[in-house]
């Protein structure tokens, strides 16, 4: 007797609903995407009880022809595809024809739609997959679809729904992503009569970000724009101090479709390299445009995941675009007391401070450097130059930047000078502490090797380009924070974080060619590991050689350190190599670039001055000079801020000199 049977249409739709309709937010997503595909310029969504009792989506799009209204609820009925070739050039958000029949199978649906402005449309009512009503009715152009009692006929699904607030959170998230993906459409979301989202539909992405995340957040966003032969990326990314505890603030939109892609998220995080604290994530809205043939959207039931035909090239393009945008910023947070939420809350927010351009004069360029008094990395000589700054990118202003300016908010394209145009103390070492404060701030440039002229050659810089501020040292607070000033205000500098950044860039360059600095030991060090760790290390000894460390088995779980780079901090050699070994043992896949990165961070931390360590004026001045010469002088390698500023206006407000 045959055991295989063909399921009837009703059961098949309920099974499909399990894939497409996971929760109320899934229904909202499918219906809103249909409205977007219809060319609507205004989409209103109303939900009750988290969407379990009612979901109503109204748009002013093209509507559905009267003869097609019932057909739209058939499985695999769609107007988006005509033949198999169309699957490889999908430009619409929906295309499978599964959403409406799947929703109708587990709820009570009422559809009213009209394809013209004649005032005549059609109403369709379906309950649990059964047609209840199909007749002509009066209706404006567009579509109005109401979903009631979701999962009323599948109590097992209803049982596993979360709380109303949880489901509402998912619905809101769907609407936020759709609004970010289509700023040209006016979206509104109401829950139990309360408006949760309202966008104007003006086409300005920054206005949508302000409507979703708030005005203060939108002011801390940086516009980005990049293009190559295959891809174009636009959008906004948050300043490093604007972080979240999870990746939910990272929105990636491909051809108007919100997607989740781990590779692109990793590219974004790599672009923020050392700018973010540990376990913190940026707020990012990326809009990517590409030919439909370069992306396959037919790989996920909810179409949230896609496949790229040139994923490696895309990830590299996104990373480089974001990295360039961040390198053009002066990333010094400004502490400003501004109320957030309720009046009198006393909350403190951080905003970006703008600095005037500074071009060192010829005398500063040619002045001989003084001896550096601040503790340097081991065996560093006065003739070794620090890495230069990131190159400037010219005077181009993107449409996103013009939008930010039109909104009346601070310009986000605040570029840093290119290599060679050091600002103030960025130029070099300190003058003696007996010099007046003004002269100490304008110090000479550090010594450079003869072959560094090309690297540090001064480019044609625009006089409007801001630079790292020219700071004049005031003193030290509790042996931990340096206090400095300029014409703009007051600055606090974390001396450990500053020295750590200086050392990190020094050691990162050194680990790029560690074999040249490796020296054999007359009295080798010995390190001990467990038998299991020792066996694993024997297969990975070549990775230590890439870092200039020669590690040899010495019997049992003991290893002999025969050589290491001479610039390892004195007295910290064993602990550094032990930490390197622990990292190598814990990594599943070893990567030379990552090993170089981790090793540089470990060595720089151990070689840096610590908190509660007194510095002389000369040492502090030299530290500020070397910090300003760094490629990225705003955060330590762990992502903590180095410099925080108080503007003159904020100080005057604190002392009630201005009201």
Automatic annotation (TrEMBL):
Composition-biased stretches (Low complexity): 363-376, 418-454
Pfam families, A to Z: DNA_mis_repair, HATPase_c_3, MutL_C
DNA repair as UniProt keyword: yes
Region annotation (Disordered) ranges: 359-461
Every DNA mismatch repair protein S5 domain range: 209-327
CDD domains: HATPase_MutL-MLH-PMS-like, MutL_Trans
Listed NCBIfam families: mutl, PRK00095.1-3
Family: Belongs to the DNA mismatch repair MutL/HexB family.
Protein name: DNA mismatch repair protein MutL
Organism: Paenibacillus brevis
Biological classification of the source: Bacteria, Bacillati, Bacillota, Bacilli, Bacillales
Gene encoding the protein: mutL
